[in-house]
Write a structure and sequence with these properties.
This protein is α+β, with helices and mostly antiparallel strands and 328 residues long. The chain has ten helices and twelve strands.
Length: 328
Amino acid sequence: MTVNRTTLFLVALTLVDLHRRWDPSDRVQRVGLAGPLLWSGQDVVRGVVLVGRAIPFPARGLDAQLGRLSVFTFQYIAIDTEAGVTPEEFETFVRGEGVHLPLYPGWRWTLLRGLRGERTGQYLMLYEIDSAEQRDRYVTARGEQTELARLFWARHPEAEVVLARWRRLGTFGELPTLFTDYRLLADNPRSTVTPGPRYRDRPGEEPVARVVGIHNLALRAGVTEEVFDRFIAENHHRIDDYPDWRFHVLKGERGNRLDQYVMMMEIASLDALDVFYPEPDIATGEAAEFASAHRDTKQMYEEWKQLASFSGSPQIYTDYLAVAENPA
């Protein structure tokens, strides 16, 4: 392997920045260079962005720490209403027994129930996985278990009794359930919504039930994925979220229901949603005041709309409430 001066520069800067939080406002000043950002979708996935072809950029996961790039899987769950299963019965079972099912290393899941939008009253299992590599160790691109996954479940024969009960009540996160795998294009590490449980109901601890909005996006005619990915990479730092809200831009990459892009909004609570949108698509005065105080965010959204649809009506969306979570 030939090591040139640019390679050495990249390695040195990576070591210097290894444990430092990336601030988009100083992406050029920190190293005293000027020049246009040359980001691509591949650069973001690798956790490296090139400025003057030699500037490292930490990968962003939900915890905004270097070296983690979470991926997400949406599994579209349904209960057997024809057999008389009720939402209360299903959620009680999941919170009492389902959450204790063993988990693949580096995986977590949250059960969500639709509050409003396309899938009101329906369920989604949101899987967050440490990396694409960790996902691929256990599930193939077709959604089938790998050999390592089969060995995992063979080591946990006690789980089959719980899985059998789950399957009598509804579908589980497995084929033929519809699913989409997403990778993270951008999120907001400045958000007041910090990494932590999306659902928690334990004695002596503060209850948690976050809202997760899934808003489908589509590109305008003539706009390529590369153009939109570059726009998000170069401009997402301009977004300031409402207090107790956090955006994630996700890009679908595989699944038997392959959606192109979604804006995933993680909101600390139902109260935090109602401050700005107590009714679907009806903003409050607080939302208008926030927009007036953050004009560059509003301008960024207008630029976004020239390339793709935006979250909310008239696009398809569902706002979900977390109702259970595997505590691992």
